[in-house]
Amino acid sequence: MKQWVKIIRPVNALMGLIATWISGLIGVGLGIGNYLVPVIFASIVVFLVTGAGNIINDIVDVDSDRVNHPGRPLVQGTITMSQARAESVILFAAALILAALFISLYAFIMVIIAEALLVSYEYTLKKRGFVGNVSISIMVGLIFIFGGIAVNSTYKMLILFVMASLANLSREVIKDIEDMKGDTDRVTLPRRYGVRIASAVAVASVLVAVGMSVLPYYLSIFSVYYLGAVAVADALFLLSAYKIGYPHTSQNLSKFAMIVGLISFTIGGLY
Question: pTM for the full model?
């Protein structure tokens, strides 16, 4: 059972779940209590889709993971390929059913789009390097739109969608820098143009995201309390950019910064 949970990378999936709740808070504030059922199921749907996507990632990347991530279940042989495929199909199907029954038609359609993008990313777009980085980052940003759909409030989510997409884009490129040795079957940005160009793209992306972080306050989406919290996230993002020469450290800092960023969004949504 432990390996069945491990393969979905529950920490990453949990971040998506939390982001969905936060987007609901941003949309309607403390009025989220009136939308508990759709928000709860929207969060579960995001968790399921993210988990299924992580399984497909392990299936597609099993050979490179022997170098980059030797501790993953498929590499270790604790789960077979057929078992992994079955688990991903079950999670995808469950997400569609829950979206249709407990959220809305729009949510159901978005889940179809998200699942199609995830499969396309893993089997096609990812091999194209930067195009794949952009597509997966857009999907991360769409979590905020999805949460907005659950509470019938999407306009506030647009700026957060862009910020989240840019921040994740930086981390995706940094991860490609870190995994250069194992990514022999992918034409990633650092493999095609070199580490210097890829690092510049990652740094530029995070700098734009940091620069945009004040906009939710100036657009009256969040109160002044948000600024103090997001300053911590911004500092961590800037530190991740400064440490770009150490990609493992840099991408971990970026992940932590994204968590702190979610906390700042929560504060903004509540106050």
Answer: 0.84
| CA 147/CA 48 separation, integer angstroms | 15
Phi, psi of 53 (to 5 degrees): -65, -40
Return the domain boundaries, the chain: 1-152, 155-271
CATH for the 1-152 domain, from 1.10.357.140, 2.60.120.10, 3.40.50.12780, 3.10.180.10: 1.10.357.140
pLDDT digits (tens, 9 = 90+) for 217-232: 998 888 889 999 999 9
Q: What is the pLDDT of residues 241-256, one digit of tens each?
A: 999 999 999 999 998 9
Instruction: Give CA–CA dist 197/64, Å, rounded.
Output: 23
Q: Pick from 4, 3, 1, 38: which is nearest to 21 by CA?
A: 38
Instruction: Give percent helix, percent strand, percent coil of the chain, each to the nearest 5.
Output: 85, 0, 15
Pair 180, 191: CB distance under 8 Å: yes
